[in-house]
Design a protein that fits this description.
The chain has nine helices and eight strands. By secondary structure, the chain is α+β, with helices and mostly antiparallel strands. Pfam families: CxxCxxCC (PF03692).
Length: 171
């Protein structure tokens, strides 16, 4: 049975799929071979990639802040204007299979990164759990952790908002 669509960005695995013995698409297809719908469903909705990141000009090291992109909804952990995000936020990175393989700042928990590295999805990923809120219940998302949108902070203030938790994997 095919996954059921719950919103524009998240497919939820139908629990009956397990009884068919069929392996889920993310284990049988490469990132390049996925349909647009499958690709979008890989986003678990954690919002970590939408946090403002600062890059050290000398070392190239990237550090996360607890400040969200201007379009990040801190409660839903989704983009407020996903279809037009790149026109409204010029430095918004469009994830592609090629980009995923080269972006070192993607969170360790990111499904795109996990699959590109040959790893499986975590139990709390909505495609695995069947629950779009499991990413929040597991404490993986940015829900209730975003200090505010980037326009509310100066660059100097951003330097005081550095956090490690977006780079950590859950226990």
């Amino acid at each position: 049975m095919a996954p059921a669509m719950t919103n524009a960005h998240t497919l939820i695995a139908d629990p009956q799929d397990a009884s068919t013995g069929e392996r889920p698409f993310w284990l049988t297809k490469t990132l390049d071979a996925m349909t647009s719908e499958e690709w979008e469903s890989l986003c678990d909705g954690c919002g970590r990639c939408c946090l403002v990141k600062l890059e050290d000009e000398d070392t190239g090291e990237v550090a996360y802040t607890d400040v969200g992109c201007t379009l990040l909804d801190g409660q839903t952990c989704r983009c407020r204007d996903y279809p037009d995000r790149q026109s409204k936020v010029p430095d918004c990175v469009r994830l592609t299979p090629e980009a995923v393989r080269t972006l070192s700042w993607l969170p360790q928990t990111c499904a795109y990164r996990l699959l590109a590295e040959g790893r499986d999805l975590y139990w709390w990923h909505p495609l695995v759990s069947g629950d779009p809120d499991s990413v929040h219940a597991a404490g993986v998302s940015v829900r209730d952790r975003v200090a505010g949108p980037e326009e509310d902070f100066t660059v100097r203030e951003l330097l005081n908002r550095l956090v490690d938790w977006p780079t950590e994997e859950p226990a």
